Records
---
Amino acid sequence: MPQNHESNFAGNAVNSYLEGPPRQVPGFASLHRMTAMLLAERTQENGRILVLGAGGGLELKALADFGQGWSFDGIDPSGDMLQLARHVVVDHSERIGLHQGTIDAAPDGPFDAATCLLTFHHVPLEQRLDTLKGIHRRLKPGATFVLAHVSFPQTEPQRTLWIDRHIAYGAPEAADEAKLENARTAMRERLCILSPDEEEAMLHQAGFSDVTLFYAAFSFKGWVAYA
Ligand SMILES: C[S@@+](CC[C@H](N)C(=O)[O-])C[C@H]1O[C@@H](n2cnc3c(N)ncnc32)[C@H](O)[C@@H]1O
């Protein structure tokens, strides 16, 4: 389980980060577009949006490109990933505040919407519910929350099968078997993965309603829910 965010998202790993998600996440650009569209259903033109796990800046950039009047607070524990985000969103910097830390570092809001993309599988299980509650209490009643990350069945043999599929899908062309095995081991030991049913139950437990799966792309799932 990942306890140390900096070890996953620091130094050289950050330098090569930007090429990772488009290769590893099926429909990455479409996920951003669907997220923006779901937010826009209930978020006014000058809405204020909370982005948890904003490091790297790809999601912030896509949302800021889509909603030209929206403003953002992006939260991330990794200073290196926040630094990268600063570069990626430089054209929108006047609308984006970046804060280092976990959900406790986020302003109180209240926010008109929130997103958390490709981040929750890095959040240890014991912090998941409190993190969701922290997002919920910063949102206006009825506000939209979009959550998407790795989620698949956690019973065997499905768990092992999905880890194999996830690594095979995201592998660079030149990856040899030893590297793939290291990646499978890292995924088994360092990521915190729940089944879709467990994810939905936790969203309800945190106070969200109308939890709906809108994105299911191989090992990734995404939900829209309302505060
Ligand atoms: C794969 S990146 C995704 C970044 C961005 N959301 C995107 O879609 O491009 C995952 C990010 O989650 C951050 N992270 C890890 N644990 C976190 C936590 N408990 N709260 C917020 N962010 C966290 C990492 O530092 C990293 O920047």
Note: Confidence is low (pLDDT under 50) at residues 1-7.
---
Amino acid sequence: MVRIGIPGALFYFVYYPLWRVFFEGLGAQVVTSGKTTRELLDNGVREALADACVPVKLFFGHAMALKEKVDQLFIPRIVCLNNKTVYCPKFLGLPDMIRHGLPDMPPIMDVRVDSRDSKLAVLRALMAVGEKMKASPPAVLGSYAKARVTQMKFYRLLRNGFQPAEAIDMILNRKAAIPVFRPGQMTFAVVGYSYIINDRYISVDVVNKLRRMEINVLTPDNLSPLAIARQRYNSGKQMFWTFSDKVLRATRYFTGRKNIAGIIHLSAFGCGPDSIVDRFIQMDNGPGGTPFMTLTIDEHSGEAGVGTRLEAFVDMVKRKKRGE
Ligand code: SF4
């Protein structure tokens, strides 16, 4: 049985349910790199370009963790899926960065997806993957249909307040649902890229830290695509990058809502788009807006520093609410 490796970073938190069921439907065994550890992060930091953002360094570490365990690595080159915005250039270069940046890696299965080239771009990419796996077109279509059903279940769990890493565990690892939203508690929005918020190591587990402080948490992944698409941000500029555009629109949705007591932007050190996103959020929120804090995450982010800043922010919001 061919073993397909999927690094547990970046797109993992967006498409892993779909990819896993799709490949398993074609008879492959899917292997992931698991959760981030200090060692895995250190490996990525050592091997990736020094000026790469933290999530890309992390991706290197996850790819390296699969080196001896798989026959091929699946790293698609996803350019555009909505005809409007494109993924950040780092995503576009991922297959090449891993292929040329790490020695002796397994072959990389790299398919390009750009919906601006064709309405059937996704289907064509799947067919190309099927061909590499020596699967017939009907088998590819059947497997994709099953994979879509699983991905829909994943989206439903997100709409119910679970975070992607939790939904993946529930659907694919059969973990029991834990209550994530408690009535009567304050709610904060944590905005940022899924692959930062959901990596418990690199995000220093901000979501669960807030929950332990009796704060409910919502993130951009909990909003429907329609709710996000309806938002307009006030900066006057359109964001080119898909994930950055989603973060800005989601923040716009959360800003000024009565049920959102505070907004925390988890920003990645070394991320070019984030330097603009953070500024736009501040301009959009404006003076007197929803209490807001930016936490910049890097490879040295420590439990203690982040915990103290979170506690201070929560305390400030509670005092404001009490009118102190
Ligand atoms: S959007 Fe930022 S954090 Fe994400 S891959 Fe691009 S540079 Fe890195």
Note: DSSP finds 14 helices and ten strands in the chain.
